[in-house]
Structures are given as C-alpha cells and as structure tokens.
Amino acid sequence: MRTAMRIGEVARRSGVSARMLRHYDAVGLAAPSGRSSAGYREYSADDIVRIFHVESLRALGLSLKEVGQALDDPDFAPGEMVAELEVRTRARIAREEDLLARLRTVADAGADRWEQVLEVVALLSGLESGDASSRQRAALSAEAMSGERLARALLDEDDLNVAGALRWALARSGDDPTSVLITALADRDAQVRRRAVSVLVETPGERAVVALRSAVADGDPTVRSRAVLGLADRGDPDVVPALIDLVVDGVADVDAGEALGVIAADGAADMIVAAVVERLGSDAAVRRRIAQALGEIVGPAAASALNRLADDSDEGVAVTARYLIGRR
C-alpha cells in the first residue's frame, strides 16, 4: 500500500508550488516526514494535511512564523488569533489611509508644506541605516514607496529579516521592479545577482521570465540554479536541458530532479527521459544522480531506463536504481 508521495505529486494534488513546498521544508514549517535513500522528499498523509492547514492560515494573513506557532502550540486559541488579526488589519488600513492623506497634502501644498516631505526623507534614511532593526522598521512602513526604490534597497540588503520586510513591502507596492532587477543581473557582485534572481522568481510577467532565461547562463552556480528552478516552477519546458545540467553537475540536483518529475508529468516524460539518458557516461557519481532523477519521472520510459541502470557496473548506481524501481 502506498504510504508516501514525492514533491511533484504533492504539488500537483495540493496546488502548492514545488518551490513553496521546498521553502516550507527549509523553514521547518511543513517538512516531509521521510526522505528516500537518495535524499528526495517523501510526504505522508499527515504531512499533506499539515500543508493544507498552513495554506488555510496563510490565507487569513498570518506570517509563516505565526502559522508555525498556531499549528505547534497546543494552547493556541483560534478565536484570539482572529480578533488579533482584525485589530492588526484595521490598524494597517488606518496607517495607509493616514499615509495617503499625508501624500495628498504634500501634492496639494507645494513648497509651503515641507513637513510631510521630510517624513518621506526620514523613511529613506531609515532604510539606509547601519542598524538592521532600524532598516527593518523602515521597510515595514515603506509600502507607499516606489517599487524601484524598494528593489534597490533589497539588492543591497544582506540581513535576512530586513530583506524579508523589503520583499513584503515590494509585493504590497504593486510596482514592477523588473527593470531594476534586470540591471542587477549584470552586476559584478555575485551576491547582488543572487538577490536579484531570488526576487525575479517571485515576480510575475513575461519580462521576468526573459530575465530568468538570461540568468541561466550566469557564471555563478547559485544564480544559475535559482533561475533554472524558478523557470521550472513556472512550467517552462525549455528549461529541461538546464535542469539536466544541474543534475549532471551536482548543483541543486535533488531539486532539479524533482522539477524534472513535475514537468514530465505534463506529458513530456519520454522526451525528458531520452535527454537524461543521453548524459550517462563513465562517471559513476553522475550516473547515480541521473538514476535518482529518473526515479522522479513516471511512465514506462523512466522505468525502462532504471531497469538498465539496475545492472550498472557500479554497485552504488545499481543499488540506487533497484531501490527506485521498488518504490514505483
């Protein structure tokens, strides 16, 4: 009897993207209870129930940290949570209405009312502070700032908490930061390019897709893998060769194998298996990673390829293939 599902099947059945499932796992919010011998995520029925609980609570406006507390605290009171969310939402609406009123005053007053202009300048100063907590407070109050300005601040930010607040403000701004991010992809600093591609994978629109495709050729493995996986999460079949490269090179190969399984499920299994098998060579480590990727792909073509690898001259490859055949 089947007891676990891989990430691709969970994504298809739950509607939660593979990228988000990987993020939930990384932050310990909805981690799979099992791992295969090859390191692939295996979700139980209880794991999937928790994923649905996470999605339901996020829809109410809770942060990921608050979702974790709600699910893990046995004394958690839902009624109190709803009341607190209502108070928080009303306070946020009041702040935004107050900000809108002040901006209208600035626009109407011209050069005679500089107090409001100075408040905006103070906000910018907060974002540029050397103190991370000051930058975070400024970011959480910066929804009305332009998406371009927020994106530039995000590209310069190395504190994860501040970066999260800036992402939140950028999403709420409603502006398209793609132009700034495209420019950042040409920066000499790999850290800047990594931040840019991380925002691009969450940015909607065809321009973001084009930018991600250009980042696939980046010389930094982290930039390249993030771009490839971001395109895969959008269901881009043209990214299959790049995903196979990640598997062969051993760069984010587990995530790349899972992404190949998701794309293959849309009817491209035979083509993907053929392309994967072409990369088999003399390196046993590569063949083992390819076997692991084939284990993520459903259908007779992948099964046939695994059967051949079950007789591989390298015992590690053969054992891996036989294990994956037993899991099908």
From TrEMBL:
One GO molecular-function entry: DNA binding
Alphabetized UniProt keyword annotations: DNA-binding
InterPro entries (UniProt xref): ARM-like, ARM-type_fold, DNA-bd_dom_put_sf, MerR-type_HTH_dom, MerR_fam, PBS_lyase_HEAT
HTH merR-type domain span: 4-73
Record bears the keyword Disulfide bond: no
Keyword DNA-binding: yes
A Pfam family it matches: MerR_1
Protein name: DNA-binding transcriptional MerR regulator
Source organism of this protein record: Gordonia humi
